């Protein structure tokens, strides 16, 4: 299982990459592995304002459909349009090509886990 040190994580298996007041969000390698082959990704539209813990979409796989929970508060400024036609990018590259959305933060991130703490939860 890949758990890049430069990212932050949630107990619900989302990852966050912070750059100033912007955050890129996706699901972890552990999550995509547990779900199996991703067949559909439903994401919010650009401009949607989300708070920590709110539903930000759904991932469907051959095994199940799972809700996605927002790890930070902010406004959606971009979604990964490639996932509409190629949801399998989440399986192939969860931390790079399979990112899900980008947000402009409205508050300071809180309660996120380090890579080591997240890996311990998944062990």
Q: Could you name the key traits of this structure?
A:
3-stranded antiparallel beta sheet, 19% helix, 6-stranded antiparallel beta sheet, 36% strand, 123 residues, OB fold (Dihydrolipoamide Acetyltransferase, E2P), alpha+beta, 9 strands, globular
Architecture blueprint of SSEs:
Elements (H helix, E strand, L loop, with lengths): L7 E2 L4 E6 L2 E6 L1 H7 L2 E5 L6 E2 L4 E7 L3 E5 L4 E6 L2 H4 L3 H4 L8 E5 L9 H8 L1
Antiparallel strand pairs: 1-2, 2-3, 3-9, 4-6, 5-8, 6-7, 8-9
Summary?
By secondary structure, the protein is an alpha+beta fold. It has one domain: OB fold (Dihydrolipoamide Acetyltransferase, E2P).
């Amino acid at each position: 299982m890949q758990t890049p040190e430069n990212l932050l994580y949630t107990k619900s298996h989302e990852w966050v990459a912070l750059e100033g007041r912007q955050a890129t969000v996706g699901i972890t390698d552990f999550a995509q592995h547990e779900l199996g082959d991703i067949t559909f990704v439903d994401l919010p539209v650009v401009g949607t304002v989300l708070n920590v813990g709110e539903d930000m979409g759904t991932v469907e796989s051959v095994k199940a459909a799972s809700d996605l929970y927002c790890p930070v508060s902010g406004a959606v400024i971009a979604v990964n349009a490639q996932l509409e036609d190629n949801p399998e990018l989440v399986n192939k590259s969860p931390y790079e090509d399979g990112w899900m959305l980008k947000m402009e933060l409205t508050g300071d991130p809180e309660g996120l886990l380090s890579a080591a703490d997240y890996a311990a939860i998944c062990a």
